[in-house]
Specification:
The protein has 245 residues and is mainly beta. It has one domain: Porin (Beta Barrel), CATH 2.40.160.60. Strands 1, 2, 5, 6, 7, 8, 9, 10, 11 and 12 form a 10-stranded mixed sheet that branches. The chain has a two-stranded antiparallel ribbon with strand order 3-4. Strand 3 and strand 4 form a beta hairpin. It is elongated. The protein starts with a strand and ends in a 14-residue tail after the last strand.
Length: 245
C-alpha cells in the first residue's frame, strides 16, 4: 500500500479563560489539529504521523511519507487584585508552541519517524516595578521533546516505541527589596537535558469501525543547572549579590 500525505496545519487559539488555565496547568495539549478536535482521544484511533506523540504504534500504516507541521498560538491574559482592591494586569505575550512530525513507511510492516513538540510551557510577565515584583516579574518555561520512533505492524496488530530527548529551559526575573525603596534585580536562568521513552500498541478489532490501543510515556526528572545575574547592586552589597554561573 502506497501512502503519500502532506499535511500542514496551523491553529490559532486564544487562551484567555482562567478556568482553562487551571485545568491545563503547564501542559500544552495542542499536539495536532486532529488531536484537538477529538479532545486527544486518539490512543486507539491515531493513524497518522501525530502518533509519535499520541501512540507510536499508530504510525505503522504501510509504505509512504507523511509530514505534519503545526502551531497553536496562545495569548494568555491574567489579572490580580492588590490589598486595596485595584486590578493589576499582566503583560500579554503571544506564545507559539509547535509540533512537527515526519514518518517514512520503509515497508508494509516497518515505519520510522521523528517528532519535535512542546508538550509543556509557561510564560508570565508583569510590568517592571509592579507591586509583586519581589515574587516575580517574569517566569518563562520552555520544554522541547525530540522523539525518534519506530513501529511495526502484523495484520491488525501494531506496536511502536520511541526515545524522548527532552530539553528544558527556565527563567525567572524578580526584585529583592533591601529597604528604603532600594531593589536589586535578579535574573535566573537554567536548563537541562534528559532522556525518557514511550511505547504503544494498537489492535484493529473491526476494520474502520473499532480499534483499541494503549500507550505509556515515561516520566522524566529535570535537574536544571544555570546562572544568576544581579543588577543595580549598591556597593555595600557587592559581596552578597555576585553573579553566579
Amino acid at each position: 500500500m502506497h501512502m503519500k500525505k502532506l499535511m500542514y496545519t496551523v491553529m490559532g487559539l486564544a487562551a484567555v479563560a482562567g478556568g482553562s488555565a487551571h485545568a491545563a496547568g503547564i501542559a500544552v495539549d495542542l499536539q495536532s489539529a486532529r488531536g484537538v478536535g477529538m479532545a486527544a482521544s486518539l490512543i486507539g484511533a491515531v493513524d497518522d504521523a501525530s502518533g509519535i506523540y499520541y501512540n507510536p504504534a499508530g504510525i505503522a500504516q504501510g509504505q509512504g511519507l507523511e509530514f505534519i507541521l503545526g502551531s497553536a498560538p496562545i495569548i494568555p491574559s491574567f489579572t490580580v487584585k492588590n490589598p486595596a482592591g485595584q486590578e493589576l494586569n499582566g503583560v500579554s505575550n503571544v506564545i507559539t508552541p509547535v509540533h512537527m512530525y515526519a514518518t517514512w513507511g520503509i515497508s508494509d510492516e516497518w515505519t520510522v519517524g521523528l517528532g519535535v513538540m512542546n508538550p509543556y510551557g509557561l510564560k508570565v510577565e508583569w510590568e517592571p516595578g509592579w507591586e509583586g515584583r519581589e515574587i516575580v516579574e517574569r517566569a518563562d518555561l520552555k520544554v522541547f521533546d525530540i522523539n525518534p520512533t519506530v513501529a511495526y505492524r502484523n495484520g491488525p496488530f501494531r506496536i511502536g516505541g520511541g526515545i524522548q530527548i527532552v530539553r528544558a529551559t527556565v527563567g525567572l526575573t524578580k526584585d529583592v527589596n533591601l529597604g528604603n525603596d532600594t531593589f536589586v534585580g535578579v535574573d535566573l536562568g537554567a536548563g537541562a537535558w534528559v532522556v525518557g521513552g514511550n511505547v504503544g500498541i494498537q489492535y484493529e478489532a473491526v476494520e474502520w469501525v473499532l480499534s483499541l490501543g494503549a500507550t505509556y510515556r515515561s516520566s522524566v526528572n529535570l535537574n536544571c543547572d544555570g546562572n544568576a545575574h544581579f543588577e543595580n547592586v549598591p556597593p555595600p552589597y557587592a559581596g552578597t549579590f555576585k553573579d553566579q554561573a
